[in-house]
Automatic annotation (TrEMBL):
Domain of life, per lineage: Bacteria
Protein name per Swiss-Prot or TrEMBL: ATP-binding cassette domain-containing protein
Keywords attached to this entry: ATP-binding, Nucleotide-binding, Transport
All copies of domain ABC transporter, residue ranges: 27-269
GO molecular function, one term: ATP binding
Keyword Nucleotide-binding found: yes
InterPro entries, alphabetized: AAA+_ATPase, ABC_transporter-like_ATP-bd, ABC_transpr_CbiO/EcfA_su, ECF_ABC_transporter_ATP-bd, P-loop_NTPase
One of the Pfam families matching this protein, by short name: ABC_tran
Family that this chain belongs to: Belongs to the ABC transporter superfamily.
SUPFAM superfamilies: P-loop containing nucleoside triphosphate hydrolases
């Protein structure tokens, strides 16, 4: 992908001015506590995510990963503090609309919501309107512009050839990349990938991971939530490990993505193998 192609697939600053100042970190958490039924299900003492930084969030089921992500997306709120526990681009008082403009979210569960027969390009374009598809009464000129923007993003992700196909006829991997295009179409600063390779065959995994690499290389902030070392693309250099509702470790990938640390995180013996910039789970027995 050339630099010119990457530029054409994203809006310029003049086209889409930033909502917030870049003087502050993209995301800050300070003494953030989420309680359910009188019990703390997640506690984050201190966490910063810089603009353009890429990280992977790993942990077993029930560890608090999903709660962590929903703190980022503001779907849930932590306990009140005198110092705001969550700041996005330096601000604690922001609307859900502003959050959605700053973030794009892709998850395997979103695919279950695709139950209508629509062209894939319309599904991708629907991300401009927070819809699955285009609004029914949209002005034809606006609809054409939305589809053109969606096609630019689909080209960036290498799926322009399926633009006119019924999304329900696509393979699972192709449909997953359409959802990535939908999350990217409004040009958010950050993309959150929540278990993006769940349910995919090796081919689908390859293309989804390649899409993540393309976006990271284009300057998007990438937050990956996963169980699998294979999902941690080379551009991700930082890991945040979550266990029992707290941050278990936070640091460089080379130090944390090891057999000993992963075994302690998941409480089962695990062997991690590194080949160049790639990591893989060799065995868990």
């Amino acid at each position: 992908m050339t630099e010119d192609a990457l530029w054409r697939a994203t809006k310029t600053a003049a086209d889409c001015p930033q909502l917030f100042s870049h003087d502050a970190p993209f995301l800050q958490l300070r003494s953030a506590v989420v309680r359910r039924a009188g019990r703390a299900i997640l506690t984050v003492d201190e966490f910063d995510l810089a603009h353009g930084e890429h990280l992977a969030l790993l942990g077993p089921n029930g560890s608090g990963k999903s709660t962590f992500v929903r703190l980022i997306t503001r779907e849930i709120l932590p306990l009140h503090r005198d110092e705001p526990p969550v700041r996005l681009n330096g601000r604690d008082r922001i609307t859900l609309t502003e959050v959605k403009k700053a973030l794009g979210v892709v998850s395997a569960t979103m695919q279950d919501q695709i139950t209508v027969h629509l062209p894939a390009v319309d599904v991708a374009a629907g991300g401009l309107f927070a819809m699955l598809g285009l609004p029914p009464k949209l002005d034809p000129a606006e609809a054409d512009a939305a589809r053109a923007r969606a096609l630019e993003v689909m080209t960036l992700l290498g799926i322009e050839d399926v633009a006119e196909r019924d999304v329900m006829t696509l393979s699972t991997g192709q449909a997953r990349r359409v959802l990535i295009a939908r999350a990217l179409v409004h040009d958010p600063e950050a993309l959150v990938f929540d278990e993006p390779c769940t349910g995919l065959d090796p081919e689908g995994m390859f293309y989804v991971r390649r899409s993540m690499r393309t976006l990271a290389q284009a300057g998007k902030t990438v937050v990956l939530v996963t169980h699998y070392p294979e999902d941690v693309i080379p551009e991700i250099q930082r890991l945040v490990l979550v266990k029992d509702g707290a941050v278990f470790a936070d640091g460089p990938k080379e130090q944390l993505l090891t057999s000993a640390t992963m075994s302690a995180l998941f409480d089962v013996p695990m062997e991690i193998k590194r080949t160049g910039p790639y990591y893989a789970l060799v065995s868990a027995y």
